[in-house]
Amino acid sequence: MTQINNPAVVSEVTELYLKYEQALCSNDVETLIELFWDAAEVVRFGATENLYGSAEIQAFRQARSPVNLEREMFNLKVVTFNDNMAAVTLEFRRKVGEKERLGRQSQMWHKFSEGWKIVSAHVSFLPD
């Protein structure tokens, strides 16, 4: 039977997500790469790009501008399934150019022998 939201697992994944958020907003490319699964099967759908495989995600991270990455996060939800699968969703507010935009993000995390990794991610902005 699947155990939903074991408090210890929710806490562990939440802590890792907050590490991801800090790395994202400070452009800590090494940590961002470390938190994604290093495999051809990993996918990241970004606000303006579709990335397939860890090589494409790493190239995107290394080429991304470090300017204006801060955002306000809200409605963070972590749902865990047993001790090795989790879904993370949130909404965010970010200034893009001179305009404030609302967006959303979702990630699937899996716990491998080497630890938790993001196996699928999606980021998008809501229509103006």
TrEMBL record:
<dbReference type="InterPro" id="IPR024507">
    <property type="entry name" value="AtzH-like"/>
</dbReference>
<dbReference type="InterPro" id="IPR032710">
    <property type="entry name" value="NTF2-like_dom_sf"/>
</dbReference>
<dbReference type="Pfam" id="PF11533">
    <property type="entry name" value="AtzH-like"/>
</dbReference>
<protein>
    <submittedName>
        <fullName>DUF4440 domain-containing protein</fullName>
    </submittedName>
</protein>
